[in-house]
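Hi W., the 2-acetamido-2-deoxy-beta-D-glucopyranose complex you wanted:
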Amino acid sequence: MGVLAPVGNRLRRILFNRNVFIGLVIVYGLMFIFLSPSSPWAYEVRFFGQNNLQTSAASSSRRRMTNHPPLPALKPRVPCYGPRGKLLSESPDDELEEVNLNIPFPKPWTGSYEALNLTQTWSTAQGRYGAYGFGETANSYNRSRVDWDKINWQDLQTQCLHRNAHRFPLAALTTNNSSLLQMPPRFSYPNESKIHNLAPQWHEFGATRRTALVVRTWRGYAYKDEDMHYIRSLIVEASLRTGGEYQVILLVDMHNHPVDILASKENYLEALRVDAGVPKEFLGMAVLWDSQLLKSWYPDIKEHRTIFQVYQPTQLFALHYPEFDHYWQLELDMRITSDAGAFLDQLSEFARMEPRKQSLERAMFQHMQPRIGDYESFVSAVDAANNGSTHAWGPLRLPDIDPIGPEPPTADPRDDNFKWGVGEDADVIVTSYCTNASVAYHWQYRNWIHGFQTGKKTPMIFCPPAIMRSSRNALLVIHEAQHVQALRIPSEATPPSFALWHGLKLSFPQHPVFYWAKNGAEDEFQDAWWKGGPKNSSTGAGPDVTDHPRGWGLSYWWQSVWSRQLYDAWEGRQLAEDVGFPWILAKPEEADGKVYMPSNLMMHPIKHHT
Ligand SMILES: *[C@@H]1O[C@H](CO)[C@@H](O)[C@H](O)[C@H]1NC(C)=O
Ligand SMILES: *[C@@H]1O[C@H](CO)[C@@H](O)[C@H](O)[C@H]1NC(C)=O
Ligand SMILES: *[C@@H]1O[C@H](CO)[C@@H](O)[C@H](O)[C@H]1NC(C)=O
Ligand SMILES: *[C@@H]1O[C@H](CO)[C@@H](O)[C@H](O)[C@H]1NC(C)=O
Ligand SMILES: *[C@@H]1O[C@H](CO)[C@@H](O)[C@H](O)[C@H]1NC(C)=O
Ligand SMILES: *[C@@H]1O[C@H](CO)[C@@H](O)[C@H](O)[C@H]1NC(C)=O
Ligand SMILES: *[C@@H]1O[C@H](CO)[C@@H](O)[C@H](O)[C@H]1NC(C)=O
Ligand SMILES: *[C@@H]1O[C@H](CO)[C@@H](O)[C@H](O)[C@H]1NC(C)=O
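Structure:
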């Protein structure tokens, strides 16, 4: 290698490490011939589709993935510019202030700092969000102030990607433009689409090593200061501090907007600038959609409402913006209490290093340290409950699904010593535990399943809330199932169930979640969720009892109310009289009233005060 110039090195790396890309060089030249001015993105689909040497078998049976070696680590991150015009590596004003307090760190109710390798530090709301404008109107604000209206976050993201371009495969860079806004909108109706294959297959795309953070929002959303701090923190920490490994997108539901936004570029831009309500600094990273778009792509799925089909816009986003390997679907009513990029990296890393064997079963129990000890003990207990076997070894076969996932390396899962899948990125990462829909009698959507030959007997798991990461591969098979076959299941069941059916890797990294009571008062509540744990499960796939008390007091759950209280107390807002000061926050005597929050907490939901 040493004798070759840097450019040669790069080519050699591509050619030798990833044999898929033989022919790439020639094609990279041809790309400019294919590239038509009206479709700046269509070529990449064609490019990888037509020139992939492994596509030779033009049979009707679908191509399965093979078990491949783990992807090599990316080169070191190159620092990027932040909103203060300085490199983030040289700008203390852009930094979070995290401290160690000389007090015991609170013990999570579920999940584990240790298992996910999450740091345990503390910060005030000012220390965490000050860089993004929290407290900037106060005289005591001692960071340089930013004129946020003058910031173009999309430019900062693009600039960062360019500075780091050498770290990513070409597939990540083929859409090289400074702004999604400046491009014609990529979304289009299928009858007018420039995408060569309306339901492309996983193998038509090369790895890009990038992850989209798709933040759902809608027309009429009232962006409050806290939303602004949150969105800016995601961009700086996940996108800019990682050297472009993530990119933040606002996916805007234009609901009830009377204009056909896709009828012309003018309509679209007018809607974006005037009607979408997106704050100026984020305009360049907004992508608009409406229900007409969903109906046009999924006409036989009679339901497009978010409550049933929250993934449809993200599926279409993956179809039109395939320059990402993974897509996190995030909400505006969530927060991450310390560096968001570091947190998401650890979820991803945990999922990558998790073996496939029993990853489903481990996702169906909660890891409660007070009940079972460390993660290894949890893993052993799940293994014992399954007698060393698993409910999902390779694709879970359904007549309607032609799976894409790889064959297991051994016929019997008991012959695999928790090796399969280690080092492989997860296709679906869920953020809370999963339940078998067949036995979840209390789940209100349990019979909402259509289009399958197996009808309501179709095996399905659901893992609320619908905050998950899905790979492009997973989203494209879901897209195809909806577009071509009109198969549909409820939102929170969609990515995990499709992962099961296709034999794609599923993972639940059990991040720390806290509960509002402590000192023994939480015991009864914990028992009611624990249900005896893996040991008391007759199936090995989750507790036999699927019902549980309401999760109001959890820091992360779909129906939590404590998350808002936690955030309010941290920000120094007055809590209602009957609301106690959250026990996990610290108010050290010597810190004159400052309130500290534990790091690496993902909180949800945090609804606006009305
Ligand atoms: C834990 O994460 C840190 C980065 O925060 C990393 O340097 C370290 O290697 C990780 N440790 C393990 C065991 O993965
Ligand atoms: C700014 O104020 C915070 C406390 O509000 C303090 O921790 C920090 O050290 C100060 N920074 C500078 C540069 O003075
Ligand atoms: C992308 O554009 C930037 C300038 O805007 C340029 O420096 C860079 O080389 C371009 N990358 C590719 C792959 O075309
Ligand atoms: C980037 O956008 C500009 C319009 O702003 C367009 O002229 C140019 O062709 C685009 N470049 C690429 C590589 O898509
Ligand atoms: C394509 O479909 C959309 C909506 O489904 C419709 O509004 C539009 O007129 C159609 N375009 C053509 C060229 O048929
Ligand atoms: C594991 O083996 C025990 C004892 O043979 C049996 O009772 C139990 O049902 C088995 N569990 C599973 C998940 O197969
Ligand atoms: C064990 O599961 C049974 C249902 O199979 C349930 O009735 C019982 O309460 C559970 N035990 C504990 C300790 O939760
Ligand atoms: C879900 O429950 C059904 C009915 O009891 C059972 O047949 C199936 O194996 C279960 N699936 C999983 C993944 O546990």
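The longest strand covers residues 211-218.

W.
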